[in-house]
Structure formats: structure tokens, C-alpha cells
Fold each of these.
Amino acid sequence: MAQGGADVKRICLHGPESTGKSTLGALLAADLECEVVPEYGRTYCAAHGTDIGTNELIHIAQTQDAMNRAAAERAAEVGAGFVLFDTDPLITAVWADMMFGTMQGYCRDAYFDSFTDFADLYLLLDIDLPFVDDGLRVYAQPAERQRFFDLCAAELDRRSVRYVRIQGLGEARFAAAKAAILESE
């Protein structure tokens, strides 16, 4: 593993809801002995509900970004090789597109396009896992999940960030994610 602040690799789990980001993040963090930053949007929606607008999405993105930056600083201080983000503002931008993108006159808020503090590697989690409704998830239908996934991939492509598509169930998904991280060094 890399040592020192400049060598901390920031890995972001990216993809639609119910693709195993939180579960995979916990497994990877335990295996790689690093911190995983939880998804603030989940905490926010659990407290305030899922009927949210652009201002709330910007708040969620800004809070997530602050949490991610703080975790990266902590990782640098202790000489960790990696820090994992359950999400970042890029996925919040995709949420905005999912929620409002089909509305006439929709224009994505400039905040989302101004975000440039990208992770070193994004793991794009495929929708090949069964959907699990936990009371907070919104897009359960196969067509919605596919649209969400396509928007996620398009956002990563548009930003020209480094990413690897992760597929598979259980151990295969974990192994693919870990291999992608280790190969990124």
C-alpha cells in the first residue's frame, strides 16, 4: 500500500441505489484497513424524507464533499493507503438528473458542474443485483434502474474520470472491486 498524504488513493463507489455500495464499502474498508465515508444523502433522507428539491441536493452534495475531504485528510495523517467514499457530488448530480431531468425547462444547477475534486478511481457498480426496497429507495423498476445506471456511466464519461465497471454477486463483486483498486496503484 502507498504511504503518506500525497499517496492516499481516494476510491469512490458510484452507481444507482441498491447496487451494494454500502455493503461493498464496508467489506473493502475492512480488507484494505481504511476508512469508508458513509452516504450523507441516506442520513438526510432518513431524517427528512425523499421529497427533496435542488437546494436539498446541493446541501447533500456539499456535506458529502466535506465529509470526503475530511476523511482523506485523516487518511493522510495516519499514512493510510486508501480512503473509500460511499458516494460523492457526481452521484448527487445524477440524482438531480434522475429526479428533474425529464421536466420541461430543467437545467442542472451550476454547482454540480463546478465540482472538480474527483476521486482517483470510481467503481461503477452495475445493476446486476436484485433491487432491495429499504423504504428510502425510489427507482425500483428495471427501466428506471437502467436509466439511472446509464446516467451514472455518462456522468463519469463526461467528466473523463478513471472508472471500472464492477459486476457480479457476493464474493465475485468484492474480488472485482478489490482487484480494480489494487491495479490502480
Note: The chain is about 50% helix and 10% strand.
Amino acid sequence: MNLNLIEVKVMTKQEAVPAVSNILMEAGAQGVQIDDHKLEDVAVISYFPDDADIKSILLKIRAKVVNLTAYGLNPAPAKVTARSLSDAKWATTWEKYYHAERVTRFLTIVPAWEDYENKETNQIIIKLNPGMAFGTGTHPTTKMAMQALETILRGNETVFDVGTGSGVLAVTSRKLGAGDIFAWDNDKNAVESAKKNIALNMGMQNIQVGINSLLEEIIGTADVIVANMLAEVLLPLVPQAADHLKKGGKFITAGIYFDKLDDMIDELNQHGFVINQVMSVDNWRSIIATKGEN
């Protein structure tokens, strides 16, 4: 049985992308993707089930996007459009624009439907079918998180992937030699997508995926915690990460828009983290931090 979806697209400026993404998710979107290949306007695209009250949802989205000016953001052109999309057409759209891409020195993302010949012995291939979950591996925030994992993982680490989305960072961690990996998301569609992507890749036996809100009620500690989410969600995660990281453990945060970087660094410092590196691609930032000894 085909699932019909409604695609809602908001055209905005880079500076308003995190806020617009948050508006869409709060409205009930089943995933958000960002098309920022154009120099000026950015398309923030989301998907809703076809039984949603889309007229009411669109009115609320438009009002909140336009109101971003009250917070000092420029959401122009603030154009909100919607169209019906079958799952078959949605999949075809992905296959048209989503191709194999080398995202770090050693990591290459390959769509599940694409035949790809690996001609380099040092290349690590990650098969991915993002479905409705956030995280294709090609957005700057995901690339920086993957680069950070490639930099710090040495083998057999316990990794917590918070807000796993498509599962790309959990798969990346395993491919880079991590030991036990625990991945959570508060969206059941993301959890199912992550499980399917894990199954596409070899040697993924040590990954466990489940539904959870951040690290609430999670027991245990990790050597590495990675989270690719907007700063508004990352900020309340910081104290939880401090409680769940081993001393000297690494905390990788991505999804930080440039104007939220200082807030994120302040929060990390307040909870005993030492900033090791700030990565930057376009207007997005990622941080590698170490839990202090105290």
C-alpha cells in the first residue's frame, strides 16, 4: 500500500534555517531536509502525512515564519508551498538528486540504489537510504560530524548517537572501528529508517537503536557522544552528556548555526568541557569537546 505524503517547502534565508526547521518539526513534520545549494535562498523541505490538517498547519507555519523578524531574523522570501507526493514519487525524487559522494578523507556515502565501484583501497563505503529521516550524509552538519568521528575514533569505543535520524553517524562509528554503539531518536520513523540503513551495511552487529528523548533515563557511560541537531536541542543535552561521558570522553556536536556558537561554547564550559576544535562549513559549526577530569 502506497503512503501519500504532503511535501511542505519553505523558502528562506540561511540565517533563518534552524528556526524554520524547528517550526516545521513542531508542526508535526516527519523529517526535514535542507537544500542550500543556491547562493541566496534556501529551501527547507518537510513531509507530513496526507491525513494531516494541512490547511491549518500551513497557516500556522506561515505566521511563525513571518514572525521570525521579531527575533532579529530575516526569513524572506518566507514563501510556504505544499504539494501531494506519493511514496513512489518521493523515492524517485531522492534517486534523481542523491548520488555517491565522498564526504571525508576516508568516508564515501553511497545511496542504496546506486551501483558503485570502490576503486580506492582506503575508502570506507557507507550505504544509505535516508527515507523520511533527517541525515543524508551530504549536509554540512552531517559531514562535519563524520569528519569529527574520523578524527577521534581509534577503535572499540562505546558511542552514543543522540538523535540518530537516518543512522548515518551510528554506521559511520562502526565502520571506523567503534565497539558498542547505542543510537536513539524520539521519532519512530527515524528509528525504523536507522534500522534499515544499519541492515544495508556489513558488520553492524554491535549497534542498538531505540526510541528515546535525548539521554533521559539512559543508564551507562560512553567514550564518545555524537549529536547532530539544532542548537536549541543541543543546549539541554549538554548536562546530560556530562553525566553520561567517561572522564576524558569526547562530545561531538553539529547542527550549530553560527549565531548560536557562543551560547553552545558557554554551556559546554559551564559543565566542565574543554573545547578542542570548532569546525566550520558555510554558516554551520561543529564542536569537538572533551569532558574534564573534575
Note: Helices lie at 17-26, 54-66, 87-97, 140-152, 168-175, 188-200, 231-244, 261-270.
Amino acid sequence: MADIVNLNRFRKDKERAEKAAKAVENRAAHGRTKASKTADTAREKKAKTKLDQHRLDKDET
């Protein structure tokens, strides 16, 4: 016979795991220094401009 499972406990354990995963994401996104955020923004902007410069079709309108 199968074991009896408490669904409330399962639900609460699942919510705790989801909350912990979200906390990890928030620490990664919001737990950085201003210099780190600025460097990432500059790196993304540089990559975007480099990609745009290598486009074959400049006008797609």
C-alpha cells in the first residue's frame, strides 16, 4: 500500500523551495555594487553596438 502524504506539508515545502530560489536570484540581481552594475551595463551596451555594426541590412523598414 502507498504511503500517506500530507499535501499541506508538500505545498509548504514547495513554496519554501520557490522562495529560496527567488531569494538567490534577487541576491544576484540586487546584491551587487554600483561599479559592478555600471561595468555590466557598459559591457552590454558595447556588445549591442558591435552587433549592430555588423548588420547586413541597416534599414528594415
Note: The chain has one domain: 7-53.
Amino acid sequence: MYRPVSCKMPPLKHNEKGEERRVGVEIELSGIDYDELVAITTRFLNGKSSSQGRYVDAIETVDGQFLVELDSDPVKDLEGPDENLPEPLRKLAEQAMDLFDAAAERIVPLEIVAPPLAMSKLQLIEDLCEHLCDQGALGSRHALYYAFGLQLNPELPSLDAPGILRYLQAFAGLYPLLKSRHQLDISRKFTLYIDPWPEAYVRLIMDDDYQPDLDQLITDYIAHNPTRNRALDLMPLFAHLRPERIEQEIGDKRIKPRPTLHYRLPDCDIDNDDWQFATVWNDWVALEELACDPDRLAAFRASYRKRHSFSLNNLTYNWVKESELWLDGKTPS
């Protein structure tokens, strides 16, 4: 039985324009066939759905446009049988397409993409996950090949280098704990798109002397992370801030510029009684609380550096256990 949890608000609730910050959410799942998922989601959101193409439906709601789609561009781009074919061949092609679709839905996750929602409205996503669980939705434990992700795209409260860096430092130190909490041990073993930041990059950004301007911050990130395939992906943010640089130096058409971080670490474990969307979100809020407290963040970085230096004591030290205290708002003695 899915147990809903309340979604918390971050310490900084507004962006640089004074508007409430927003967050995009992407939920991957299986267990419900495509047409049924569209119908269930449309009814729950009290929206109106319309087909946008093969395996892509839009749902218009008072909160914006949600999308339901099969998370595979090659499958979505397939065209149906040519209407000019003789009827026997057309029927055969339709049957083949039906078989292909059935196989695709068993292997490739279905995805619900929410519009950027005000953070005060995120309880809608928690309630939607509860409803989908009740309707038979399945998560990563049931994936045949690819784990199903829950991706968050939180808008940042400020877009200057010091503000961005604080978030990166908090995430870098908390990554082992977040991974242990929100990514299944068996997940994504066939995929590479969830890599952590390299250790050399983490050492760089956790150093007290590292105080880059925005262009240097981008340069260093690209030097160590020339890819979208990171647990916390900064390419959309940097494409928003310096579009010409990301286009020239990365050149990946899949990068969508936006003033957000792209947090792609968590799995969607929607049918697990101990999993809730709000738990994932609330851990992110706790990360923000650390990032927005300069004194605690400085102490956190110092402890991280101490515990990751070479010493006999550190060989058996449990950094994840200490990280739990930091994430819970405590300062270890």
C-alpha cells in the first residue's frame, strides 16, 4: 500500500525574478499499457488528452501540459503501414506493428513528463504516484533491461557562479548517501547514463580556494564532464547561461536549455511500499538546506576533505553514515 508523504518546501522559495521556483518531474514506469496510462493520468488530472504522434499524448490541465510517451525516440518515430499497400499486405504490416508495440512496451519504459510546477504544488505528483501505484504501475524492480528513473529539474534560486557552486558542493559530498537511498543496487546495470562526477572534479570543487567565475565554472565542468550522462547533469543549465559554448563544445541536440539542475540519480520504485516520490524530493530539499547555509556547508566540505584524505582511519570510516547527520540538519561532533 502506497503511503503518501507531504512534500516540503526549500529554504529559498523564489528565483531571481521574485517568482516562486518551479520544478519539472519525469516519471518512468511499466505495468500499465500505454493507452490505459493516458486514460488514467488524464482522469486523475481532470485534463483533456490529445495525440501528438506515435506514442506521444499531451494532457492539458490547469497546471500546464503533461506528456505521456514511450521513452524511445526510434519507436516513436516509426511510421504505420502505407495506406497504398494492398489490403493483405497492409493487414500483415499492421499485425507486425502490433507485435512490435507489445514488445516495446515490455522493454522500454513509459514516461510521464510534468510541466514545470510551482514547488508548492508538488503534492500533485505525490498523489499521482499513489494513484498510479493503486492502478498497477510498476517500477525499477520489474524492469527487464533498463531501470526506470525519477528525474527532477529544480529551478535554481540564483544563476551566479557562487550560488550554483554551493549546490554542486552539497551534492558532491552527499552523493554516496543519495545513491544508497534512491538507486537500487541492481539498477541500470546495462546503462551508463547515471555516472557520478569524477573524483578529480569533486576534489576541485570541494577545495576552499576554488572560487570560479561563471565561465571558469563551465570550463571546469566540461573538462571533467563532457557529457549529459551524470547523476547531476549541468548541461541544460549551462546551455541556458552560455548556449553558444555548449553548442560548440558539446553539440548534443538532446540538451534542452533551462535554468535548472537535472537530477537524474533516483530510481522510480513506485510499487514498493517503502518508496514515495516525496521522500526523494524531501531529501533534495535537505540538500538545498545544506547548500544555503554557508557555515554548515563550509564545515561539511572540511569534513569531506578530512575523511577522503589518505589515512589508516579513513580506510574504514563510514562517510555515508556521517552524511546522514548532515542531511538531517545536524552537524557531527
Note: The beta strands are 22-29, 48-53, 56-61, 64-70, 110-113, 117-118, 150-154, 232-233, 262-263.
